[in-house]
Each structure stands twice: as C-alpha cells, then as structure tokens.
Amino acid sequence: MLRFILRRLLQVIPVFLGTTLLVYYMVFALPGDPIAALFGDRQPPQAVIDTLRSQYNLDQPFWVQYGLFLKNLFTFNLGNDFTGQPIAASLARVFPVTAMLAIEALAIQAIFGVLFGVFAGLRRGGWFDSTVLVASLVVIAVPTFVLGFVFQLVFGVQLGWAKPTVGANANWGTLLLPAVVLGLVSFAYVLRLTRASVSENMNADYVRTATAKGLSRPRVVLAHILRNSLIPVVTYLGANLGSLMGGAIVTEGIFNVPGVGNKLYQAVLRSEGPTIVSIVSVLVLVFVVANLLVDLLYAWLDPRIRYDQ
Amino acid sequence: MRFTRTSKALGIVAAAALALTGCGAGGGGSTDGASNAAGDPNKVITAYSNEPQNPLLPANTNEVYGGRVVNLLFEGLRSYDANGKAVNALAESIESSDAQNWTIKVKQGQKFTNGEAITAKTFVDSWNFAANSKNLQNNGFFFESIAGYEDVSAVTKSTDASGKSTSTPAPKAETMTGLQATDDSTITVKLAQPEADWSLRLGYSAFYPLPSAALADPKTYGENPVGNGPYKFEKQGSWVHDQSISLVKNADYNGTRPAKNGGVTFKFYTDPGPAYTDLQSDNLDITDVLPSNALKTYVNDFPDRNATKPVATNSTLNIPGYNPNFQGEAGKLRRQALSYAINREEIAKVVFNGTRTPAKAYAPPVIDGFKEGIKGSEVLTFDAAKAKDLWAQADKIQPYDNSKPLQIASNTDGGNKEWIDAVANGFKNNLGIQAEIQPFAKFAEVLNLRKSQQLPGLTRAGWQGDYPSLYNFLGPVWATGASSNYEKYSNPEFDKLLKEGLAAKSTDEANTKFNQAQEILFQDLPGLPLWDQARPIVWSNNVVKAETGWNGEILYYGITAK
User: Fold this and answer.
1) How far apart are CA B174 and CA B133, in angstroms?
2) CA atoms within 13 A on the CB side of B32
3) For the residues of B288-328, what is the DSSP string, one character each?
4) Cα–Cα distance, A77 to A280 (Å, whole number)
5) What pairing do the DSSP bridges indicate for beta strands B101-106 and B91-96?
6) So what's the ipTM on this one?
C-alpha cells in the first residue's frame, strides 16, 4: 500500500513540470506588455516600467523566466504579483475560501445525490424516480450562470434569505448559496450515477443471497447494494473535487467570492504568469491527492481491489 | 492619469458605464437641508471598489481604485470642489507675479493623524521624494515643471546587443533646486519656465504631504498609510487584500472636505454585476460603475437614488500620420470627411442610450476655459453630403488605396464594439469605403501597437483629466513628444501656442491661447473628437444623497446616511 502511494506521489513530478511549463508558456505567449498594460493611457516614467520588468524577469527569454520561477518555487519563495503583494499570502487567502466552497458543494451533491439516487434506484419507474429524473435533466440543461443569477435574485434580493454576495465575510453560512448553485449540476450527475448503479446491483446474486440469509432490508441496502454501487460515484466526486477547487470562475464571479476563481480571472487579465502558475501548481497537487484518495477509497469499498502485488 | 482602469479589460464596463448625458435623469431625489439634518453622521457607508494596484502612496497611485482611498486619507495644499474649482486647503495663500516664481504660505498647526506636524519642509521633502527616479513613483513626472527636476529624476539608458534600451534610475541630486522651504510656513518654488496653470495642479494627489515614516519605508507605510485627510485607516491592517479597505472619520480634521458620515468601507468587486445586485438589496451603499446591461434600467431600478453628472473625460478617434492615405493635402480633406461622416448625435443616443454627449472641442465642457464654436469645430457636425464631397476632392489629388478596409483598432470589451461598428457603418454608407473594427482582446495589445506605430488604421483613444485644466487635455496628448501622444502628432505652431498659454499672466489669457491652439488641432485633425462622458452613480436606501466631483470620483465625504 505504501509503495502504491509513493509511486502515485512520484507521478506528481512529471505532471507538475508539464502543466507548469505549458501554462507558463501560454501566459508568456499572450500579446501585449503586461507592465505597460498596468498603467493604461498615461504611462509612468520609463525607468519605473523598466525596473518593474526586470523585477519580474520579464526582460528575460522564456526559458530563463521559467527556470527562475521554478527555482523560486522550490525555495518556497513565490515572489510578488504585479501589485507588489506576495503571491504566497494571496494564495493563503484564496484557497481556504474556495476549499470551504468546494467542500460545501461536494457535501451537498454527495449527500443529496446519493440519497435521492438510492431512493430512485430502489423504486425504479416509480413516481419519485420519474420526478427526480426529469428534475435532474432540467438542472443539467440549465447553465450554471443562469442558475446563479436566478438564485441570487430570488433568494438574495427578493426573499432576502441570504446575502446576494459573499465579499469580505466568507464563512460556511454566506457560502451556502453559491455552494448550492455550484453543487446542483453535479448533484444531478451523482444522482443519476447512483440510481443506475443501485438499480443494476439490486438484481445481483449477492443481494439475493443477503436477503435469503434473512438480513434486514436497510442492512441489505446500506451494506451491500450501496457500498457496491458507490465506486463510479466516488470516481466522479473525486474528479469533481479537483475542478471545484480549481475555482468555479463563473460562480465565484456572480457571488463575488474572494476565492481561487476570482484570483485566477484577475491574474489572467493582467497576464501575471507567476500568479497563474502558482495557483495551477497548487491545483495539480490537489488533483493528484484527490485522485489518490479516490483510489484508496476503492480498496475500502471493494476489498477485492488490491494495490500491492 | 486615472484612465488606466477604465481602458483596460478589468475596467470592463466602466468605460461604457461612465457615460450618461448631463441630463441628470431622475437624479437628486428629495434632498436638501431637512434630510441632511436627519442624516446619521456616525453611520459607515459601504462603497464599490477594487484592489488598489500599488501601495497607498499618493505619488505612486495613478489608478482609480487606489486614488479614491488616497484622496480621502490626505489633504493637500489645495483641493477641488464638486465643480472642479481649486480652493486653498492647507495653503493659506499661493502667489506669483510672473507665473514662474511661486510663494506658498502653509497653514500652521496642521498634523498627521500620528501627531507629526505638517510644515513647509514636509511638502518639500515629500515632493523631492516623489520626483526622485530612485523611488520609482508612478506620478513622479508631475514635478517636471520645477527647476532641478531633471537632475533628481535622471536615469541612465543602456542599450543591449539586440538594440533594446533600458532605463535605470540614476539621480544626480537628491533635491530639486527650485524647491525650498524658507521657514516653517513658506515654500518657494521656481519653475523651469512660466506656467500659468501650475497652481491648479496642487490639489492633485501627487502633491499631498507625506509623514517621515513614508519616506523612510514607503512599502511598509503604503500598507497602513497615515495621512491628514477627512478619513483615516480604521486600524492597522484595515486593507484586507482582495476584499476591502475600511476608513473611519478623522475627528481632528478641520479642512475643506469634512466627513458627513462615520466612515467608508470600500468593498472589492471583480465585476460590477454583483455590486449592482448588492445595491438592489441594500447590501452595498453606493457604486460608480454600473454593469453595461444596467445602463438602460438603472433609472427605473433606483428611482430617486441615482445621479448623473458630466465628467472631465473625452474620447477621440486618432488617425496616425504614417498612414499614406491620410498624408498631405488629400489626407487633410479625408480626415475632415471622416469627421463629417460620423453621426455623433445619433450614436450617442442609440448606442449609448442617450448617455454621452457629442464632443464640441478637444476638451469637455466641464473644464474651465472650455469654448464652444472654435474655428474649425464645424467638422464635428454630421454632414453626409459634405463628407462625400470632400472625399471626392481628395481622390482627385491622390487616389485612395481601397485595397484594404479602413480599420478601427480597439479592445472589444467594455462595450466598445457597438459604437465602433456604428462609426464604421457611417464611413461605409457616407464615403463608400470599406471600414471595420480591428478587434483586440485586451487593451494592452492595442497600446503596444500604438506605441510602436504599427496600427494600420484608426485607433480609439480616451483621456481623463488629471486636474481641471484646459492645458491638461491638450499638452500631454497632442504636444510634440508628449507622454501620451502615441501617434506622434507634431505641429510647432501648436506647441508654440501652448507654451505661450503656459507663460500667460492670468488663467483667462492662458485659456485664450489654449483655445487658439485648438484651432490648429481642428485644422490638422490628428484625432477626431467623438464624445464627452458623464458618470451615473446609484445608491442604496441607506443613503440620503451623494454626488460626483469634476473627475467623476464620488465625493465620499459628502455622502449623508440615513
């Protein structure tokens, strides 16, 4: 098991180098001088621009820039963004906010998705199943930003149940509304995955055996059907955690959440290579760890899966 | 210069949003003495803003979001009232007999909020600091008129093998020779040459005084600035990056801009949309940036809670002199024809929803000295027949190269595409040429090409006044070699008139010269004036009354809260 984890962690290295190189190059290739763009129509003295350019290594060729960035990264010194703020500090500000949002959204989709999915799967073709199927189709079909604006208007402005934006006071409560919006689409997928999986497993031999053994219905459902049905769901949720952490740019924008998505959006507008790649680096780690956790969960869900040969 | 944000991608809708006609639609509301008295002087106002781009040092702040904070934290020798009139603040008197040698008397007994006294020396030290090239202050060039600026701001230029030159700060002196504090209350300033409107600049943020801590460690100070203005930081660390800045009333302030509320908290938004929603639910008190889709609805969404006032910002369509189609006598006729072919009135009404006013000159009407009907300004009226006729005349002199369409370069965010399409259609229909937008995703790309003279066609340009002066709309934009004269327009006669205006004894005399200089611009038409802008603001139910100043910045100190 340990060897498996180690091997997976070692895979981070090429993935990490590849993604950072690619992203760094794409930012580098953006047209326009990012420093001059900071100032608009009235430019500061040329010495200011030139000093800033050399401070951010923008006067260097691509490979030198990238090399210096890697060097800084491995010495845990991410440097400053174009507003002169330490990048490390801003990462430390945005990631907890987005983590809260992602966990909340994930919890919503996992709990409600699995719950509804099991009920729908157990009574396939019933009224609950049909309603939920249609509803989830609607949710999948409506784009997130529409959901976002509608929820914001209805619950934030008209009903006044929640603050329409998050802003400076990000906590579990204020993030609930964006989390619901964010979780809703994946909730529909989780529901459908669970439903399909459950209704398939219901007719499996081991379920019949369990029932024949005289186990109670809840025990059969929870310990046998559900546990075996969760593998595709867990795969989906794991991959989803990564993308949720990547910052739901649209949702964070609508609700003014000071998280990764908003930061990334601004950094892209400013062509801030170091900020963008720093965020991407953390995301790579999140993705890898999330997928590792999913793999480990497989082993727990299905004891036949073994990682040590 | 405070145009940066609006012109950039980030400013997004600002550019589109700041433009409402001066008709003050529905503005004002029921606000006079009675409701003012009912205002709560201790209530804290929340206001739309975004993360400042630099540490909060006045001479380093050249964008709107930092600028609005700095203006509340500091008080300079002068300040501008709501109409852009410069009034003495910390200055007791500002005198000059020849527009070159100035004597400024500083009010005594003024203090920063940390107790440090403000004397003539405070100003001298602050200005020398800001002008010093080593300190890399964005607004350092504001001191360029003072004798000895060249030495303090000197740089060495080095050119590498590939021919790219780099400037490195190398000041030859620490203080400007023309700037002296003769005693605690007197500043004497000698300018390199006479400048009649120099004293108008003294209200600009670059001229604010700085406490000694700022000069010792600007970066640390800029995180928690200590000033002398109507507001101060609520506490150390009031600037929560990417989230907010909290200011509270400075109880010791006794200047020209007393705070009518208990404080201002700037909440940061990366997009004006959520802010608009927040305003609708009273979760935010005031904004000066509306999402573009709200321009048509804000008067209905906020009845009696909106105001629109003209600001000192205008737009032009610049014609690079290097384009062979627009050179010589034929080029001159063609430039006139293009101007006649733009239906400013209609575009202002239809595209901007009646939210911009057609330009009447190279400076907007809110600026002191503005004159309507300058000789040559008739080109600003729409006249399709005349346009066609002039174009035909030009073709006789030198045929027009119609192989490529005439392109109008612009970033396409901020609602620019709509009006450029309209202008291009005007060219197509009235001149019979091909015309189209040359779209760019980002403002930076256009700027780069403008600087390196690579744009094939026309380009959109905008200017917001740094200080309320006619010269500010002409000198930095059209004078030979000026900092924002990217199309490299040059006319010695124009330069001469500007110089004469600067040397004039009185502001009126100066403005007469500047308006004569505009006649030359109208002859040459290096850029076609398009429209002047106004800024709409809306406020929540918590606010009684608010208004914007001459440059469109909300007068936060004057906001009264319920």
Assistant:
1) 10
2) 1
3) S---GGGTTTHHHHSTTSEEEEEEEEEEEEE--TT-GGG-H
4) 16
5) antiparallel
6) 0.82
Measure the CA–CA gap between A96 and A75, rounded to whole angstroms. 23
Q: CB-CB: which of B136, B240, B484 is closest to A41?
A: B484
pLDDT tens string for chain A (309 positions)?
788 888 878 888 888 888 888 988 888 887 777 777 777 666 777 788 888 888 888 888 888 888 888 888 888 788 888 877 888 888 898 899 999 999 999 999 999 999 999 888 888 888 998 998 898 899 889 888 888 889 888 888 888 888 888 887 788 888 889 999 988 888 999 999 999 988 888 888 888 888 888 888 888 888 888 888 888 888 888 888 877 887 688 888 889 888 898 888 888 888 888 888 888 888 888 888 888 888 888 877 777 777 665
Q: H helices then E strands: how many in chain A? A: 15, 0
Tell me the C-alpha distance between B442 and B412, whole Å: 8
Give B 107-166 residues with CB within 8 A of chain A. Answer: 133, 136-141, 153, 155, 164, 166
Burial A81-119 (b: 16+ CB within 10 A, else e): bbbebebeebbebbbebbbbbbbbbbebbbebbbebbbb
- The structure tokens listed for B146 are 């003072």
CB of A168 within 8 Å of a chain B CB? The answer is yes
Three-class secondary structure assignment of B216-263: HCHHHHHHCCCCCCCEEECCCCCEECCCEEEEEECCCCCCCCCCCCCE
The two structure tokens encoding residue B322: 């290097």
Q: Which residue has the tokens 């002008």?
A: B131
DSSP B12: T
